[in-house]
Input
Amino acid sequence: MKILTRNPKAPNHVTLDGKSRGPWITELEGAEVLINLCGRSVDCRYTPKNRQDILGSRLIPTRLLNDVITALKQPPKIFMNASSATIYVHSEDQPMTETNGTIGHDFSMDVVKQWEAAFFDTELEGLRKVALRTSIVMGEEGGAWPKLKQITQLGLGGKQGSGNQMVSWIYIQDFCRAIHHIIHTDYFEGPINITAPTPLRNKKFMQLVRKKVSPLFHISQPKWLLELGTVFIRSETELLLKSRYVLPERLLKSGFEFEKNSFNGYS
Output
């Protein structure tokens, strides 16, 4: 396995800036699978500059990889591209699946729509393309869990806003197992929701976080307080208040079994 990265730190790492061609192209010749996870974090203020960077960091590498693999003598058999479950509209009561999910219009949804459009813009005979509409990923040393744990330890582990918004999540272990399943399921193409089948209300989700972390106290944050706080931490309230009620319909119908259906954080 080769990892194409801007910051190579291991023998199997190969330099890729995500913007231009280079020696890294030879690593794709004859490869079985290509997985593109490029994209700057959305945990920031949506200033004009950051909006441009968020969009560009997704479109530019995706278009570059599309151009490169169409010129290979032995292109990969499957090309998987990162996407996001935030492509669906805010929904507290109606689950969003690949077949009946509603895709709306705002900055975040438009970014994902353009991202997927750029990805599916080219076709190549014998190449399967899959867009990974991923929810919040929980990892012990990465993803959302360390930050959730930290804010809860600081006493900010109450509900956010009304607490009725849905939280779609997936453990990193099941994320990796889902990727493996998709690779070995020949009929999988197009968008696939990568999320556990048990989304939770924010108030229940945070209750489970507190049960794991055991803070001395917890404070809930109304919307006005979140809007004030996110200014200081340079983030956006959308990341906490948007209701992502997303279900992995295609994975479940294919027989995929999640090892972790119940959210209980990490130790």
Summary: The mean pLDDT is 94. Residues 48-70 form the longest helix (23 residues).
